[in-house]
Amino acid sequence: MGTQSVVIQKIHAFLLWANVFFEHSLIFRGLSAIGNAARGSAILSGFLHTERDYWGGSLIMRGVSLVFGGIYRGAAWIFAVLSRANENSVNRKIFLACKNALADPNNLLNKTVAECVPGRVMDWFFGDEKARQARIGHRGHVSASARSLEAGCNSMSEKSDAPVTVLSFINLKTVYMLFLVGSLTIPSHMWNNWLLFISAAFFAGAYFVKLLLDENGSRFRENVDASDMRLRGKAASTPTKIYISPALILFVFFCAFSMLHGYGGMDSVRVFVIFFACIVHSVLVSQIIKKSDMRLFFSLAAVALVIAAAIGFYHVAMGIEVRTDLTDLQASPGLSRLYATLGGNPNNDAQAWAMLLPFVIAAMICVKNDTRRLVLLMIIFTVLGAFAMTYSRGGYVALGAGLAVFILLAAPRLIPIVFLAGILALPIIPPGIIERLFTLGQDSSSQYRFMIWGGVMRMLEDFWVQGIGMGPAAFIRIYRSYAHPLAERAMHSHNMFLDIITHSGIGALVAFLAYLYGLFKRGIAAHASEVEPENKVCLAAGIAALTVFVALGVGEYVWFYPRVMLVFWIMTGLLTGLSLKTPPKLRILEKISAPSAQ
Q1: Nearest-angstrom CA–CA distance, 410 and 365
Q2: Sign for the pseudo-dihedral over CA of 516, 518, 520, 522
Q3: Rounded Cα–Cα distance for residues 256 and 65 (Å)
Q4: Which of 208, 480, 542, 552 has its CB 3.0 to 4.6 Å from that of 398, i.e. a possible disulfide?
Q5: Of the candidates 243, 540, 205, which has an alpha carbon nearest to the alpha carbon of residue 362?
Q6: Nearest to residue 395, comparing CAs of 338, 452, 341, 472?
Q7: Over pLDDT 70: what percentage of the chain?
C-alpha cells in the first residue's frame, strides 16, 4: 500500500512537472494563439458566443470602419493643426467679428432687415409672434432674455423653444432646407441634375465639418468660461447617433453591383450617382432637420408648393398645348394638362405635390395662430386646384389613399364626417375630373401599361436574378427584344417595383421592400408611443406620404425624374428623423462621430 502510494505520488509529481513545462512551451503558446484567433474570427464567433452583433462586428464593417476611422483621425489632426495656427491670426479675428455682428440684434443688419416690413412678414409666417414681442421691447430696445433667444436661434442647437426669425436664415441648416424646397420651384430649363450631386457633396462635407467642430469645440471657441467649457466638453464627448438602415445599405449595394455588370454603360453610372446623392440627402435630412425644425421646413414646403402651383396656373393662362403622348384624345378629347416646373410632365408635378401635401396639412393643423392657419389653408386649396388640373389619375388615387391614412392616424373620429363630406361633394367636383377617373383602365394609356408589363415579365424570365443595370439606356437596349409590337418605345416599366427588379435584380427588390417595411413599422410604432400632439400629427403626415409613394408606384416609376426621386428621399429622411428618438448606432458611424471613444 505504501509502495503504491509512493508510485502514485511520483506519477502525480511528474504530471505536474509536465503540465508546467507544457504551459511554458512554444507549442502551448502557438496553440493558444490559434485558439484566440479562432474565437475572434468571423466564422467561429457565431458558434462560440451566444450574443453577437453580426452586422457591426462583420469583416465588412470592420474594414469600412478602419478606412473611415483613419480618414476621420487624419481630418481631426489637420483641423487641430489649423486651429492652433489660426487662433491669433487676422482671419480668426475677422471671423469672430462677423459672427458677433450677426449674433447682435442691435446691429445694422437687424435694424434694416429684421425690422423692415418683409422681415416682419417672414417672422410672422415662419416664426413665433410671442417670441418676437419678447425679443423687441416697446421702445425698440432689446432685452437680455431676447438676446439669449436670438443667440439660440442663430446657433445650431436643437432647442424646441428657439424662435425662428430673419436672422436665423443666416444658418447653414436653414440654407439647406431652402435648397431642398427651392429645388421644386426651379424651372426645368434652368435645372441641372448634377446639382443634386454637388449639393449632396457640399452639405455632407459641411455636416462632417460640424461634427469635427462639435468634437473639438474647446479648440475653436474663445472667451468661454471654465464651467461652460466643461459642459461643452461633456456634450462633445457624447457620440452623435446616426441611423442608416442595413436594408438600405444592402439595396445600394445591389444597385451598384448592377451598374457594374449591366448593359447601361456610362448612363448607368450617371443614374447611380444621382440616385446615391438623393440617398445622401435622405441621411442628412434625418440628422440635420430635427423635430424643432419641422414647422419651419413644412412652412417652407408650403411656400414652394404654392409658387410651383402659381407657375402652373401661369402656363394655363398662356395656353398649354394638347399632347398626344400624355393623353388619349379619344377617351379625353381636347384635354390640356397643367404642368409646372418638373420636366414639363404633369405626372411629375402631381407625384411630388402628392408626397408633400400631407406635411403642409400637418403644418396647418399644428400652427397656433389662426391667421397663419387660414393662410396655410388657402395655400392648400390653391395647390389642390393646380393638382386637380394635372389630371393625373394615379396622383388622384395616391393622394386619396395618403389622406385616408393621415385621417386614420391623426383624427380617426373624423372618418365618418370626412366620408359623408366626400359623398356630398361629388356634385360639385368638376365633371372633367370624374370623367378622367372613369377612363382609368379603359384608355390607350392604361392598355399601354399592360403591354409594357407583359414585355417586362418576359424579360424578367432571363434577368430576374441580376437585373440589366440602372438607367433608361439599359432598359431600352434589352427591353425591345421582349416588347409588345405596340409598346416598343417604352423607357421604363411604369411600375416602381418592376423597375427595381428589372434594373438591379431580385436582391434589390427584397432589400427595398424590407426598407419600406422598416419605415412603416418604425413610423407607426413611434406614432403609437408619441405623447406630444404635434409630433403625432407630423408622424401621421410622414406615414401618409409613404403611403402616397407606394400607391404611385403601382402605375408609375416614381424615380424616373430625379427631382421627384429627391422628394421621396427627403420624405423618408423626415420620417426617419421623426420616428427614431434614440436611433441604433452603426459601428462605423459611431467611430466617425466619436473617435475619442476608441
Answers
A1: 10
A2: negative
A3: 20
A4: 552
A5: 540
A6: 338
A7: 65
**Which set of grid coordinates corresponds to residue 528?**
403609437
Q: Which residue reads 408635378 in cell numbers?
A: 349
Question: Which residues of the chain fall short of a pLDDT of 70?
Answer: 1-12, 15, 22, 35-65, 68-69, 72, 76, 79-80, 82-171, 213-242, 325, 328-332, 441-443, 581-598
Cell numbers found for residue 338: 397643367
The pTM for the full model equals 0.71
CA distances from 263 to 258, 273, 484, 490 (A): 9, 16, 21, 17
Residues whose CB is less than 8 angstroms from the CB of residue 102 and which lie 6 or more positions away in sequence, other chains included? 109, 154, 167, 170
Backbone φ and ψ for 388, nearest 5 degrees, come out as -65, -35
Q: Is 118 helix (H, G, I), strand (E, B) or coil?
A: helix
Residue 493, C-alpha cell as written in the block = 416599366
Q: Is the dihedral of CA 423, 424, 430, 435 positive or negative?
A: positive
Burial profile 443-476: b = 16 or more Cβ within 10 angstroms, e = fewer: bbbbebbebbbebbeebbeebeebbbbbbbbbbb
Q: 376, 389, 380, 379: which is closest to 429 by C-alpha? A: 389
Cell numbers that stand for 417 in this block: 364626417
Grid cell for residue 36: 484566440
The reported pLDDT for the residue numbered 569 is: 95
User: 3-class DSSP state for residue 174?
Assistant: helix
Question: Hunting for cell 416614381 — which residue is that?
Answer: 558
| Residue 150 to residue 163: CA distance in whole angstroms | 7
Q: Give the per-residue pLDDT at 360.
A: 93
